[in-house]
Amino acid sequence: MTAVGWLQITVFALALLLITKPLGIFLWHVMEGKPQFLSKILGPVEQLTYKLFGVDAQEEMNWLRYGQALLAFSCVSTLFTYAILRIQGLLPFNPMHFSMADAPSWSTQVTPDLAFNTAMSFATNTNWQAYSGESTMSYLSQMLGLAFHNWISAAVGFAVAAVLIRGFSRQNTAGLGNFWADISRFSLYVLFPAGILYSLFLVWQGVPQSFDAYKVATTLEGVSQWIPLGPIASQEWIKMLGINGGGFLNANSSHPFENPTPLTNFVQMVSIFALPAALTYTFGKSVGDTRQGWVLLSVMLILCLAGTALCYSAEAIGNPNFDRLGVETSSKVLGDSGGNQEGKELRFGLANSALFADVTTAASCGAVNSMHDSFTPVSGLVLLLNMQLGEIIFGGVGSGLYGMLIYAVLTVFIAGLMVGRTPEYLCKKIEKKEVKLAMLFLLVSAFSILALTAISTCCDLPAKGFLNPQGAPWNNINNSGPHGLSEILYAFSSATGNNGSAFAGISVNTPFYNTLLAVAMFAGRFLMIIPVLVMAGSLASKKLVPATSGTFPTNTWLFVVLLTGVILIVGALTFFPVLTLGPIVEQFLMHEGRLF
Amino acid sequence: MNELDIITPKKQSRPLFDPPIVKRAIGDAFKKLHPMHLAKNPVMFVVAVGSFITTILLVKNACTGISSAKLLFEFQVTLWLWFTVLFANFAEAMAEGRGKAQADNLKKGRKETTARRELNGNVEVVPATALKKDDVVIVSAGEVIPSDGEVIEGVATVNESAITGESAPVIRESGGDRSAVTGGTTVLSDWLRIRITVDPGQTFLDRMISLVEGAQRQKTPNEIALDILLAGLTIIFLLAVVTLLPFSIYSVRAGGGEVADPFQLIALLVCLIPTTIGGLLSAIGIAGMDRVLQHNVLAMSGKAVEAAGDVDTLLLDKTGTITLGNRQAVEFVPLGGISAQELADAAQLSSLSDETPEGRSVVVLAKEYGLRERSISEGEIEFIPFSAQTRMSGVNVNAREIRKGASEAIFKYLTGRGLAIPSELSKIVTTIAQAGGTPLAVADNQRGALGVIHLKDVVKGGMKDRFVQLRSMGIRTVMITGDNPLTAAAIASEAGVDDYLAEATPETKMKLIRQEQEGGRLVAMTGDGTNDAPALAAADVGVAMNSGTQAAKEAGNMIDLDSNPTKLIEVVEIGKQLLMTRGALTTFSIANDVAKYFAILPSMFGTLYALSPGAQGPLWHLNIMRLPSPESAILGAVIFNALIIIVLIPLALKGISYKPMTAQALLSRNLLIYGVGGLIVPFPGIWIFAQLLVVLGLAPSN
Fold first, then answer.
1. What is residue B11's predicted lDDT score, i.e. its pLDDT?
2. Which of A161, A331, A342, B201 is the one with CA 20 to 30 A from B9?
3. pLDDT, tens only, B601-610
4. pLDDT, tens digit, for every residue of A78-112?
5. What ranges make up the beta strands (E) of B528-640?
6. Record: contact A419-B666, CB cut-off 8 A
7. CA distance B82 to A253
């Protein structure tokens, strides 16, 4: 660990705090459909869009209507992406002839299960990739099939958060806003201008934006090598800002074409957290007490920084076995001396790798700038837990906020009784229905991660079979012992949390994993959105109870501590047993000199 | 009638662990093992199913023959799992026990009463149980009123101690607010003609028996919500534990060791699911109802008690709640030229025969001016009682006439006698009225006006502090009074209530309730008259006075048997205490889990990835409590988990200590005790049990 490393982490946190309020205010205007500085220019486009699709943007939808619109929209867009991926060989912008008769020998076929898995992955804002972008996807698939989904799935997440916010801020109403207006406004006023500026910035820093075919280069060793190109910048920005994480290239943000400079690395990390952080402020402003928003942000930041600190120190301490063997591990990148450099991009060093890894898993991004598989077991534990908590530490666009709010509701219910009143959160009584929905939300997540991982560790399949040619699903892992368990667990945690990063070390492009992981992604997205929408409907129909000195206070440091405690106890205790058999035992074994 | 004097909770403060109740509760704990009963409580149902499975496995293992050490461990796990269920049942039975004991007494006392029923002009003797609605009965002195009804003729004194525990007789008469009589009470003097108002089985006594018995107890909304939370947590932990089996099989395949066995898994499950709160939840609810009953308030449902905890606005009747009920003389204000002594003397003389509380207070106050009671021979003195015409009372001592009365009446008296009305008099009168007091002018026929007696509503001692406490809890108090706004404002400010409703009528009361409820606030009030019934029904918590009319009693959701309106505040406190107890034990229960993980997981997985078969593997490092052996660790956790239910029974029954303070302060305090405490306590607890087991030879030492 170095002072410079800690300084970078501190600067990152400060930058985040700095943008939270202005961006939060802007998002509030967008959410409420209030005029802001872009309305003059883009307002007519918004109206034109509504006219074009015959949408009445003023129509207030109840939770059911809203949910129907959301699911129908996501369903159609998923099928659209599935179709594009399946027929990419017939479509233009395919200079490398993927999925065509004369496709390169190193290319991967887009099988139905891979297309299904990928379509589901992008529709759910997960961006789990069972393929390598540069050897599988045509430019059109990348742009229209995938980047398009990165965009709209972020808008859908924002819409759900907006609905839950309205549930708290409105009273005696069934109206929760208009789905079409919400996604249109967010796309038009937030993503569109951000996309233009952000991709220009990336191009300036050296990210390619090209429709040319890949270049062939001859390396120093005299071997010829493909240099992949493509419209990378225009996909890179939404990958970060939309918290999608699906790289254009397999190496993701560790590749110089996706993440060329320290500056892009810093901006990418900040842009992962930007929208979820700002949404906490938007939320506070909507419920009329910005401290409520800062409380949620504090909890997120505390959990994130604690994870980063643990990760960074574990990586800096590194693997004791190297010292025992007398191997020199010190590299002088950014002053790092020693530590676990395996799988790290030396351009970024330990601090930025640990921070990026923690940020990308705490938010449901999943972009990576280092190999998570190569982190020390303790760091792996942090990354796993980040996802297993339900992607609430900043989380996805919108989904982080609504997940955190579900935990807040639960905290208020568990501890709120201690002040001798029926629990209230933000002047809304938390009753039977809310508790039921909050528990359902947690159950979906726990069930998807634990049950599907369990199936993959115990259900034997015939070798060379259709489902899994390797036979039993645990044969797909490259590492044995606890590390192998972590790999399977990571896959399902990542899919359920809609994170999309991979621990790697596991071959998941088989019908068995593609399907099961798609189920996990679906559950982690839509089965969790439904209880949120129902809860928003229930809350909006309730009266606002005036707050008194007898009301459970939720805008204080005490509540920050309480909420953090409940997240750790309820969330973490669920996964502690399985983590014991994964990273925890691996850490002990590492110290005994046994590696996997 | 002494045998009817049965429900007098104030007099018989039972100890918490009353031997007969404990004895009965132990029996009930076994009866409650019935699956139908267990199914009502998801958490304990899971424990029972777990115990059942381990029992079957235990029998199977005993038959197939495994090592005796292992069998001893498995036997103990099974035994303690059953104890966990039994302890929870016992807690519930204990909570029900007091009510049941009371109900038994009530039933015992409800002997076969007979009634004299009028039918077509004839009077026939029938059993009380045969009485139907609208039958008319005659009850004479010494007889027990056979059923609930309304007096249609007669006036009588009635001993209602059977219901209220209050031995002072009350008057019941036809018409007005004192016409309701209750079955089981006894007529002491005179006779009554009563029209029966209920059908058999629905009398107040019947309802009371079923209420104290808890037979009709339904889960309250909050309890249901908590049940859902606990069930949800149970499912999550079930998932976490069930999936451990494949994970442990995987790990054994990878690194050797022993697969987690069902006894360990079930022990882990039972320790993780919130058994503490799950086992005590219904006991807390029943005990809350019971505590209300100890205060001699009959709550018609647990929901009402719970709602009391949520109340935001208390509507309190001025008379009897905030003030002592009667005005009292607090000061003599003489006119210029008259000494206070003289005024006091005149006032006392005029009040000597005045038996009203006001009159007596004048005599008492005069004593402070050195005027002792004097003996006056009847001959020289003539008392003039208060009359509605003159609106004065007074005394004639020889030729001297002393009069006291409302200022207008005295003005009239003075004018009639041709005496001057000093301007000072009206000034004093106005000053007193503006301060919220009642001025009573005193004059005689010799010197004219003497001065004014200042009568004042006296605020009960300690009420002001009480209102401050209520305010800190976020509860607004509104004083309801028939007084004019001026008087009301003065008393309100003296008593320290937040608001007042002056010149209150049933309509304005109702309007106030609606207004508060529209603002999202919950309202509690007391009432007794028939015209209070709509407001009592509309209020979220309506406490009817037992002395009140039948209509009022039916409209409210609680009945105060002592007819003491101040009790509303206590009911609110009990409601809050009930919710706090639930919250505290839930937090405690969940916080407990951390320690149990550190006892059971290392024991379960201690052999995985061991360097040599049979040795301790790396996960035994997680045994941070340094428990002697895996068996002692698991048993220690299971025993702690079971016994903590017993340890917390007193807390569940009495409720956690309650002090009025702000929510923020309450939260910090309870969080420290039950949250942080819940995190820490199990560590030494489990350690002690584990060591004890080793010492007793019930678990291996390593």
1. 39
2. B201
3. 999 998 899 8
4. 999 999 999 999 999 999 999 999 999 999 999 99
5. 541-545, 558-560
6. yes
7. 56
Q: Which residues of A touch B674 (CB under 8 A)?
A: 418
Given a contact cutoff of 8 angstroms between Cβ atoms, the answer to whether B546 and B553 are in contact is yes
Q: Residue length, chain B?
A: 702
**What pTM was computed for the model?**
0.88
Overall average pLDDT of the B41-54 stretch: 96
- Examine the predicted complex and report whether its ipTM is higher than 0.95: no
Q: Exactly one of B135, B148, B227, B317 is catalytic; which is it?
A: B317
* Across A114-118, A162-166, A512-516, B3-7, least confident range: B3-7
Radius of gyration of chain A (CA): 23
Q: Which of B225, B235, B247 sits opposite A443 (nearest CB)?
A: B235
**Tokens 């619109």 — which residue?**
A69
Question: What are the DSSP calls for A571-590, one per residue?
Answer: IIHHHHHHHIIIIIHHHHHH
Chain B contact for A482, CB < 8 A? yes
Helix, strand, coil shares, percent, chain B, to 5: 55, 15, 30
Q: Which residue of B has its CA nearest to A556?
A: B664
CA distance B181 to A485: 75
Structure token digits, residue A589? 């074994």
Chain centroid to Cα A102, Å, comes to 36
Which of B115, B99, B195 minimizes the C-alpha distance to B154?
B195
Check CB contact of A551 with chain B, cutoff 8 Å: yes
Q: Which residues pair with B315 in a beta bridge?
A: B478, B525
Q: What is the pLDDT of residues B336-366, one digit of tens each?
A: 888 888 888 888 888 887 777 788 888 888 8
At residue B103, what is the residue type? A
Taking only residues 528 to 587 of chain B, the set having a beta carbon closer than 8 angstroms to any beta carbon of chain A reads: 575-577, 579-580, 582-584, 586-587
Q: Which helix (H) or strand (E) holds B701?
A: none
Q: Residues B561, B562, B568, B570: what is their CA dihedral angle, to the nearest 10 degrees?
A: -100
Residues A397-416: what's their mean pLDDT? 93
DSSP B333: E
d(CA B49, CA B234): 13
User: Is there a catalytic annotation at residue B345?
Assistant: no
CA distance B351 to B363: 6
Residue closest to A189 by CA, chosen among A74, A25, A53, A77: A25
When CB atoms are compared, the residue of B221, B471, B618 closest to A585 is B618
Contact between residue A307 and residue A564 where contact means Cβ atoms under 8 Å apart? no
Residue A248 is classified by DSSP as: S
Query: Which DSSP symbol is given to A383?
Result: H
- Which structure tokens are listed for B13? 């403060």
Dist. CA A389–CA A379, nearest whole Å: 15
Give strand ranges (E) for B198-318: 297-299, 313-317
- Provide the β-strand partners of residue B332: B453
Sign of the CA dihedral with A94 first, then A95, A99, and A101 last: positive
Task: Kindly tell me the sign of the dihedral angle through the C-alpha atoms of B493, B499, B503, B506.
Answer: negative
- Extract the tokens encoding B245: 């089996």
C-alpha B489/C-alpha B159 separation (Å) is 39
- Give the Å distances, CA to CA, from B157 to A425, B141, B171, B187: 53, 9, 4, 6
Is the pLDDT higher at A391 or at A550? A391
Q: How many Å apart are CA B577 and CA B290, to the nearest integer?
A: 13
Distance CA B331, CA B442 (A): 13
At residue B674, what are phi and psi to the nearest 5 degrees?
-95, -30
Three-state secondary structure readout of B353-377 = CCCCHHHHHHHHHHHCCCCCCCCCC
Q: How many other CB atoms sit within 10 Å of the CB of residue B667? A: 23
Is pLDDT of B484 > 90? no
